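Thread: "does anyone have the structure for this chain?"

Original post by V.I.:
We have the sequence but no experimental structure in hand. Need at least a predicted one for the grant figures.
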Amino acid sequence: MTAIARKRTFRWDRFIANALPHVALIVFAGATLMPLLLIVSASFSDDTLLTRRGFSLLPQGFTTFAYQYVADTGTQIYRAYFVTIGITVVGTTVGLFVMSLLAYALSRPNFRFRRILSFAVFFTLLFNGGFVPFYILMTQYLGLVDNYLALILPNLVNVFFVLILRTYFAALPGEVFEAARMDGAGEFRIFLQIAMPMAAPALATVGLMTALTYWNEWVNVLYFIRDPEKVTLQYLLFQIQQNIQLLQESDVYASMGVAIPAQSVRMAIAVIATGPAALLFLVFQKYLVRGATLGAFK
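Reply from O.Q.:
Generated one for you, tokens below.
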């Protein structure tokens, strides 16, 4: 009986030792998820009850009025969604290809202009021309006012993402590339058919972060876009929020006695803006973790 009791005690100790990390991770995940649940709940709550009682996990006076208020912009919000999806898809695809080409060239030790190109890339991490030269270049020299390229070109190449890809390409086995060259494959074919498939985790990571950059684009819209039909979703939601704030501060509108669903609309805007990006993150999260830790093992 004593041996059996010791064996049972040992099993309980092992169970507790294995369970504690899982419990800690569950508590941490719950604490991380809690703000998102509060935002979603508040977006479906009555604004008066939300102001009076505060936030809760369940909607207070369930209503979709906040989303209807945002949708009252008519077809503009659907057009903004279309524009945002368009620049995200095009910018991510082209940017990922350009950054991959640059990173692959920097990772090849036999590349003749490797040092010069590396210096040009790293130099941009230390020095920046500033906003005024950038604005003059985009508007006067390139003429990209009211042009979708003004939303794509500034984020096309990110030096930090290039370094992630370069690190991954440099870690790939060189014997594979040498064997391909012996079989008569050119450098561009090696890049497309060998290096790119082998670097899929890093490409997925950089692609996800690039897509999030384009999805959250609104500053360049403020600088270069004048046509309201070409604004992105983030900028349109920013305008809606600014209009609500102006209406709240207006004495004329306050004298009419009409309540503005300020809190619930802000939460609805947050859900609309972050919902697709959160789903995209869930799909590629395993690649994001692997790609983000590449530099730690080099």
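V.I.: this helps a lot. The CA atoms of residues 126 and 136 lie 21 Å apart.
O.Q.: and DSSP finds 16 helices and no strands in the chain.
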